[in-house]
Amino acid sequence: MPTIKQLAANEAKEKRFRGGHSLCSGCGIPIVVRTVLNSIETPVVVVNATGCLEVATTRFPNTAWNVPWLHVAFENAAAAASGVESAYRALVKRGKLPADEPVTFVVFGGDGGTYDIGLQSLSGALERGHQFLYVCYDNEAYMNTGIQRSSATPFGASTTTSPEGKISFGKAQQRKDLTAIAEAHHVNYVGQSAISHWHDLSDKVKRAVEVDGPAFINVLSTCQLGWRHEPREAVKVAQLAVDTLFWPLYEVVKGRFRLTHIPEEIVPIETWLRMQGRFKHLFKEENAGALEVIQQQIFDEWERLKERDRNDRAHFAPLQKDQTFTTEFEMV
Amino acid sequence: MKTKPTEAERIEMLRRAKLLTGAEGAAHAMRQINPDVFPVYPITPQTPIIQTFSKFVADGEASTEIINVESEHSAMSAAIGAATAGGRTMTATASQGLALMIENIYIAASMRLPIVLAIGNRALSGPINIHCDHSDSMLARDSGVIQFFVENAQEAYDFMIMSVPLAENHDVLLPVLVGQDGFTITHTAEPILLEEDEDVQNFVGEYEIPYPLLNLQKPTTQGPFDMPDYYFEHKRQQQAAMDAVPDAFDTVANHYAALTGRRYDAIEEYRLEDAERAIVVMGSSAGTMKEVVDDLREQGEAVGLLKVRMFRPFPTKKVREALGHVQKVAVLDRAMSFGSKGPLYMEVAEALFGAGPSMQNYVFGLGGRDLFPADIRQVFENLKNPEEMREMQYIGIRE
């Protein structure tokens, strides 16, 4: 497991993502970016979909990026990365770039750019097998354009395009399971992590960049404006998303599944929902039914994931005494 | 003034030529250029370009990284990624594919990326139609790319090659669309003269852009966010790049002529110098028109043809010089701008503003509708008749 000191040492060595950007206080995205970039030992090249991260870090003539960085449009980050990575291979093949100095290609996209408008280009790039890591920072709505619902927005959340109202309890549809969709491409690494669990994310990044072919990590990232919580509580809100089992942390390595974190105490979903203004309306008397539905769905999904974990556990290194989970990586 | 080759020249040319379609000609040009990356998605009538080129790569005759993407949007996105990274990049498309690319065509131009695209010009939906017209390329009219329309397979081959050093000229650094008429050129076999592989490779040289993304020693932020304080200047710089094209093209065309003996200009004047009536057109129809012009000339009629090869940047001054003395001009558009005149007509009208000729606009050939020599003779005939000088007419249509 990485220590915070190691990540800090990597950052001190080469500050890949710098300050001066205009992301909000309490935004989860910089935690994702710094944890990912500081966990990669090789030089990195970043491709970024349109979204908060792109807009807030590259206002011309300034940039927060101290690594090669490319943005093309909203829906095509994975396709643009396919081109960069293919050019890299072509130039290595033709002796125009050194073959013995590996580079890691990392794509960052939000849930709008990944779950929705960019899903096709992500799917194409995963199927073609480019060597890159795609990191989705999932803050569960189109935050950059003012909190519109996305297919990652949870059931019942109020957004500006799924507002709660006299006859509406917020978003009426379930969220899309993007991590499962990525897994269906049979890539060698897929994971789900959260900004509250930086060690878990860092571990996953280290494993993801080692596999052959593309890797995908879906990271739950908070948005204090859209979720309507106190900016200082960003990490706590993410932590509770994990502890309520709303956002389970797991990985699928070469098709084998395991949970990478099992909360010591499972917290009722109500605790997490109450922290966020986007769910406030669910606590009106008339919406009590929605709360029950949400809690039941979370437990059902958790049972399903635990079963997968039990079935595949034998493929991973055995647990040490007193361990309920391990982040040590060794497939058996 | 361009004259037809002599019979002896024709025989010598045929002896050295290969029988190839325009699509195959473009694919041979790409084989000889051997770009680093070729992201591509199939669409009729461009598909034979990518099929032929894929076979060249499969046979080891080119070592390009082909990316078989899942859409034209991704083809152009990957092309932007590859060209930014520092690899010479080409792609090909048509019709709906170009429509799907358009967002990225604008971005590639604004990022000043010298990507060369082969276009098999085809009508746009709807209704869906796979045959030729120029509406697809016209979608890219205001995008900031250089645009050529070629007359035949030889020009398709030659312009693919010439476009590489033109696009990569550091005063230019713009994408180039080489449009060849769908089916009429893409699928029709003609004798083409191919240059030696080594000569083409020397002609295009090494790909070199000022700020390759993969220069890890000098990290760059590419495709950043502009607010009103910079956007306008960046767009102004794109116009400056366009302004550099005519001189850059002249240099390229001169070098190419030295290599091949074929000297191309942005326009081709055919029997224009003493013409009283003239037609302006782009693409394969110019070939048919030259035959008609010859026939009418034999009958003593003072007619001529202006073929426009370079549509963007539009060679305004050259067009004015070529047509200033003509009394009556018919501009034949193979695309429409609904609610206004044809796009080529608008350019020619602007070029001739305040000059002598009276003008007429025809639309022809949409969705692959044939244009016959009799139609062209009728256009020349109409130019004699003041009553026929209506602003907009349609050729070969059932009203």
Describe the structure.
- The complex is a heterodimer of chains A (332) and B (399).
- Chain A is an alpha/beta fold.
- Chain A has one domain (4-315): 3-Layer(aba) Sandwich (Rossmann fold).
- Helix content of chain A is 36%, strand content 14%.
- Chain A has an eight-stranded mixed beta sheet, with helices on both faces.
- In chain A, β9 (250-253) and β10 form a beta hairpin.
- In chain A, α1 crosses α2 (29-38), α2 packs across α8 and α4 runs parallel beside α6.
- The relative contact order of chain A is 0.12.
- The mean pLDDT of chain A is 94.
- With 399 residues, chain B is α/β, with parallel strands linked by helices.
- Chain B has two domains: 7-260, Rossmann fold (3-Layer(aba) Sandwich), CATH 3.40.50; 267-394, Rossmann fold (3-Layer(aba) Sandwich).
- In chain B, 41% of the residues lie in helices and 18% in strands.
- Chain B contains 14 helices and 16 strands.
- Chain B has helices spanning 7-16, 22-33, 47-58, 72-85, 95-110, 135-139, 153-168, 197-204, 231-243, 245-260, 285-298, 316-323, 343-351, 373-382, and strands at residues 18-21, 37-40, 65-68, 90-93, 116-121, 146-149, 176-181, 189-192, 221-222, 267-270, 277-281, 303-308, 310-312, 328-333, 358-363, 392-394.
- In chain B, the strands form four sheets. Chain B has a six-stranded mixed beta sheet with strand order 10-12-11-14-15-16, with helices on both faces. Chain B has a five-stranded mixed beta sheet with strand order 4-5-7-6-13. A two-stranded antiparallel sheet of chain B has the order 1-8.
- Chain B is globular.
- The mean pLDDT of chain B is 96.
- The A-B interface holds A 43, 45, 47, 54-55, 58-61, 63, 65-73, 75-76, 79-91, 93-94, 96-97, 103, 120-121, 123-125, 127-128 and B 36-37, 39, 63-65, 67-71, 73-75, 77-87, 89, 103-104, 107, 213-216, 219-227, 230.
- Chain A: Residues 50-219 form the Thiamine pyrophosphate enzyme TPP-binding domain.
- Chain A: GO terms for molecular function: oxidoreductase activity; thiamine pyrophosphate binding.
- Chain A: Keywords: Oxidoreductase, Pyruvate.
